[in-house]
């Protein structure tokens, strides 16, 4: 997790649901839905919350347009400088130096994200100043917890070598299940599920327990604390 999306994606989800129903889900409502592990896509999560509260449900394409209006506040394929939406309210949780340190220790890194490609590229390339980072974004592979994107990225970065381990860190049950599904599909590879609670969570202990119950191998206090854990994994 490299950005806090409580004030952007989650806020867009909340106001999109409110736009159609007059009811705004609380953070706890969204967390409970996400804990089911199959609602990683915020468009589909918005539709499901509307269904569960017995509202008229718009078409997916109509909802996406409304959601994107809140989130981007402009043309997603246009100039990010002209975006006026919630995407401007995303505190970064790591810096470019974090990735420089990973590289310095010969740890390869990349991203499997449920975000739209314009959003993911904006954060990675413009805000973090990463040059052409390996990225699987929405539409590049089936949505998590399908492991196709993660497996593809792992194979791309391994470049034919046998990795010591393949660690994926995420902040949802779907992220954990993605690793478990990759382990089932490619059991010969050394998968590790690392999990972290997002910043908006107030009951961190309960959230950590949900991630552990889902199958996470290790819990990290924050993404920036990941490096010592990875170096420990590398130790002989």
Protein architecture, described:
Helix 1 packs parallel to helix 3 (42-52), helix 1 packs across helix 4 (60-71) and helix 3 crosses helix 4 (60-71). The strands form two sheets. Strands 3-4-5 form a three-stranded parallel beta sheet, with helices on one face. The chain has a two-stranded parallel sheet with strand order 1-2. The protein is globular. It has helices at residues 9-21, 27-34, 42-52, 60-71, 96-104, 117-127, 148-158, 173-185, 204-214, 226-234; strands at 111-112, 135-136, 166-170, 191-195, 218-219. The model has no long low-confidence stretch (mean pLDDT 94). With 236 residues, the protein is mostly helical.
List the helices and strands and how they pair.
Elements: H1 9-21, H2 27-34, H3 42-52, H4 60-71, H5 96-104, E1 111-112, H6 117-127, E2 135-136, H7 148-158, E3 166-170, H8 173-185, E4 191-195, H9 204-214, E5 218-219, H10 226-234
Parallel strand pairs: 1-2, 3-4, 4-5
Q: Helices and strands, in N-to-C order?
A: HHHHHEHEHEHEHEH
Average pLDDT figure: 94
Which radius of gyration do the C-alpha atoms yield? 18 Å
Q: Assembly type of the shown chains?
A: single chain
Terminal Cα span? 28 Å
Output the number of helix runs.
Answer: 10
The biggest sheet amounts to: 3 strands, parallel
> What is the total tally of β strands?
5
């Amino acid at each position: 997790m490299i950005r806090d999306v409580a004030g952007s994606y989650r806020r867009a989800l909340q106001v999109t649901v409110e736009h159609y129903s007059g009811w705004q889900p609380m953070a706890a409502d969204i967390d409970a839905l996400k804990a089911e592990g199959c609602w990683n896509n915020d468009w589909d999560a918005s539709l499901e919350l509307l269904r569960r509260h017995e509202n008229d449900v718009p078409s997916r394409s109509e909802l996406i347009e409304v959601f994107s209006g809140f989130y981007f506040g402009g043309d997603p394929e246009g100039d990010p400088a002209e975006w006026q939406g919630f995407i401007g309210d995303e505190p970064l949780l790591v810096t470019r130096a974090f990735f420089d340190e990973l590289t310095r220790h010969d740890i390869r890194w990349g991203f499997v994200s449920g975000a739209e490609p314009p959003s993911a590229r904006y954060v990675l390339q413009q805000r973090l100043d990463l040059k052409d980072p390996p990225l699987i974004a929405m539409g590049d592979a089936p949505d998590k917890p399908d492991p196709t994107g993660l497996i593809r990225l792992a194979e791309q970065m391994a470049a034919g070598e046998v990795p010591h381990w393949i660690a994926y860190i995420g902040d949802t049950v779907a992220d954990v299940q993605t690793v478990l599904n990759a382990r089932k599909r490619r059991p010969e590879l050394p998968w590790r599920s690392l999990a972290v609670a997002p910043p908006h969570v107030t009951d961190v202990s309960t959230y950590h327990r949900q991630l552990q119950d889902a199958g996470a191998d290790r819990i990290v206090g924050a993404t920036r604390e990941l490096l010592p854990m990875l170096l420990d994994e590398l130790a002989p």
